[in-house]
TrEMBL record:
InterPro entries: YejM_N (IPR024588). Residues 7-250 form the Inner membrane protein YejM N-terminal domain. Keywords: Membrane, Transmembrane, Transmembrane helix. This is Inner membrane protein YejM N-terminal domain-containing protein. It comes from the Bacteria. The chain crosses the membrane at residues 21-41, 61-83, 90-110, 137-161, 173-195. It comes from Pseudoalteromonas aliena SW19.
C-alpha cells in the first residue's frame, strides 16, 4: 500500500514537472515579448557584432531568467505539494507576479534608464506617482488591464499545456529549442569576453540593458551614452569624454516672457579673495559656503554666463551662439572675459545683467541692483571645489545644498526677470527659488561632475570614478551609483541633437 502511494506520488510529480517545462516555455515567450522594450529604450548598436550580441543575449538571458524563476518557485512546489489543480493555479499567480514585475522594470528602464533597485526607489516612486496623478483613471485602467491580460494568459496556458501534455511530449521542439538557447547563452558570454578584452564598446555598453545582467562600469556607462571618444581610445589608449561632435540644439519654439520684470543684476567675479573682501566690506551681504565651482576658470565663466555646463562650450563658441534668452529687452553685458566678448556685439545700453570679471577698481555697482559676488577658485588638484558666495538676496543664503555658477544665471533670468519658462527651457542651471532636490550635474576638463547632497562623483577621461565630499574634499569609499549617474548623464545631454 505504501509502495502504491509512493508510485502515485511519483507519477503526479513527474507529470507536473513535464507540465512545468512546457509552462516555462510559454512564459519564456511572454518574457521575450515584454523584454523587447529594453532593446528599443537605448540607441541600437551600430556594428554587426553588436547587433548579434544584442539578439543572442536577449534570447538567452531572458530565457535564463524565466527558467531560474521556474526552478526557484514552481519546481520545489511540484515536489513538495504535487496536486495538479492547486499547483497550476499557484503557478499562474506566481508567473503573473513575475511577468508584471518584469513589465514594471521595463517601463522604469524605458523612462529612467535604469532597473528597479532600492537605491533608485525615490526616483521610481516619483515617476509612478507623476504618471498616476497626471491621468489617474487611464493609468489605473491600463495597469489593471496589463495584470489581467497576463493572468488570463497564464491560466489559459496552464490549462492548455496540462490537457495536451501527452501530445506535447511527442513534439521534438523542446530539445531543439533548449539546444538553441544554450548555444545562444554560450555565444553571448564568449562575445562579451572577447569584446571586453578588445575594447569593443558597441558590445560592452549593453552590459546593463537587460535586468540581472552584467554590472555596469563607469566606462561602459559613458560609452552607452556616447560620451567616450572611442576612436581616440583605440588609437592611443587614451579615452576622453567625447564632446567634440556635440551639436547644441536651441529649444524651439522659445518660450515668451510676457511678465518681464525690469531689474538690474550684477554678477561680480573677483580674481583674489582680498578683492572680494574689499568689495563686500561696507555692504549688507548674505553668504553661503556651498558654492561649487569648477577650478578651470574658462569652464566656470562659460557656465556662469550661459547657465549650461562646459560640455556645450566648444559647440557654442565655435558658432558664437548667443545665450538663448538674449534679446533687446533682456541684454547681457560681459566685462573682463575675452573668450565671450562677442556677446557684447549684441548688447545694448539697457543691459539688465552684467557679468564682470576683474578687480575692485574696475567695478561700479548700483546699490539698488541685485548682485552676486565670489572669487575664482584657487589652484587645486580637484576638478571642482567649494567656496563662498555672497549675495544681496537673503533667500540665496538659505538655499539647502550646493549652488553652481549656472544656477546664478538661471535665478537671474527665471526669478529676478520673471522669465521662468525661458530659464527652464534653455538652461541646466536651477532657479534657486524653486530648488527642490539637492543634486546636479556639471562638466569640466573632460570630467563629468555629478553631485547628490554632500557626495560628488567624478568620472574622468579614462572612465574611472571617484567620490569626494563637497564640504571637506576628502575621498569617499563608496560604490558607483548607477541610477543616479544615468539620470545625471541624461540631464547633461539635454540640448544635444
Amino acid at each position: 500500500m505504501n509502495l502504491s502511494q509512493h508510485n502515485q506520488f511519483s507519477s503526479k510529480a513527474s507529470q507536473l514537472l513535464s507540465w512545468g517545462h512546457w509552462f516555462t516555455f510559454a512564459n519564456i515567450g511572454l518574457a521575450l515579448l515584454i523584454s523587447l522594450s529594453y532593446l528599443f529604450a537605448d540607441s541600437p548598436p551600430t556594428s554587426f557584432m553588436g547587433i548579434t550580441y544584442m539578439l543572442v543575449t536577449w534570447l538567452s538571458h531572458t530565457s535564463f531568467i524565466a527558467f531560474i524563476a521556474f526552478v526557484l518557485t514552481v519546481f520545489p512546489l511540484s515536489l513538495v505539494f504535487p496536486y495538479p489543480r492547486h499547483i497550476r493555479g499557484m503557478a499562474a499567480v506566481i508567473a503573473t507576479c513575475g511577468a508584471s514585475l518584469l513589465t514594471l522594470d521595463a517601463y522604469v528602464y524605458f523612462n529612467l534608464g535604469y532597473h528597479l533597485s532600492t537605491s533608485a526607489l525615490p526616483e521610481i516612486l516619483s515617476l509612478l506617482w507623476h504618471r498616476l496623478t497626471s491621468s489617474p483613471a487611464l493609468t489605473t485602467i491600463l495597469a489593471s488591464a496589463v495584470v489581467l491580460l497576463i493572468l488570463g494568459f497564464q491560466l489559459i496556458v496552464s490549462n492548455f499545456t496540462w490537457q495536451r501534455l501527452e501530445q506535447l511530449k511527442q513534439l521534438k521542439f523542446a530539445r531543439y529549442a533548449i539546444s538553441f538557447l544554450i548555444m545562444c547563452f554560450a555565444l553571448s558570454h564568449s562575445i562579451h569576453i572577447w569584446a571586453d578584452a578588445n575594447l569593443k564598446f558597441d558590445i560592452t555598453k549593453q552590459d546593463n540593458v537587460l535586468p540581472l545582467s552584467y554590472p555596469t562600469t563607469a566606462k561602459s556607462l559613458l560609452a552607452k551614452n556616447d560620451l567616450l571618444d572611442i576612436e581616440s581610445y583605440n588609437q592611443a589608449h587614451n579615452v576622453k569624454i567625447n564632446n567634440q561632435n556635440i551639436n547644441y540644439q536651441i529649444p524651439t519654439p522659445l518660450a515668451k516672457c510676457d511678465d518681464y520684470a525690469q531689474k538690474n543684476i550684477d554678477i561680480f567675479v573677483f580674481e583674489t579673495d582680498k578683492q572680494l573682501a574689499d568689495f563686500i566690506a561696507n555692504k549688507t551681504v548674505y553668504k553661503t559656503k556651498q558654492f561649487l565651482q569648477p577650478t578651470d576658470h574658462d569652464d566656470m565663466l562659460f557656465s556662469l554666463v550661459y547657465g549650461l555646463p562646459a560640455f556645450y562650450k566648444m559647440a557654442i563658441l565655435k558658432d558664437k551662439t548667443l545665450p538663448a534668452w538674449q534679446s533687446q529687452r533682456r541684454s547681457i553685458e560681459i566685462k573682463g572675459i575675452d573668450e565671450l566678448s562677442f556677446i557684447n556685439d549684441q548688447a545694448h545700453t539697457n543691459s539688465v545683467i552684467r557679468v564682470i570679471k576683474g578687480s575692485d577698481t574696475l567695478i561700479s555697482h548700483d546699490e539698488t541692483s541685485q548682485f552676486f559676488a565670489f572669487s575664482l577658485a584657487s589652484d587645486s588638484q580637484e576638478v571642482v571645489t567649494t567656496s563662498v558666495l555672497y549675495s544681496s538676496d537673503k533667500r540665496i543664503s538659505k538655499v539647502d545644498g550646493l549652488i553652481q555658477p549656472s544656477d546664478l544665471m538661471a535665478t537671474s533670468v527665471g526669478q529676478y526677470l520673471n522669465c521662468k519658462a525661458i530659464a527652464k527651457q534653455t538652461m541646466l542651471g536651477v532657479n534657486l527659488y524653486k530648488k527642490k532636490d539637492d543634486m546636479g550635474v556639471n562638466y569640466s576638463q573632460g570630467v563629468v561632475i555629478a553631485y547628490k547632497k554632500d557626495r560628488i562623483t567624478l568620472i574622468d577621461s579614462d572612465g574611472n570614478f571617484k567620490n569626494i565630499s563637497a564640504a571637506e574634499g576628502f575621498s569617499i569609499e563608496q560604490g558607483l551609483d548607477i541610477p543616479f549617474l544615468v539620470q545625471s548623464i541624461k540631464k547633461l545631454k539635454t540640448f544635444t541633437q
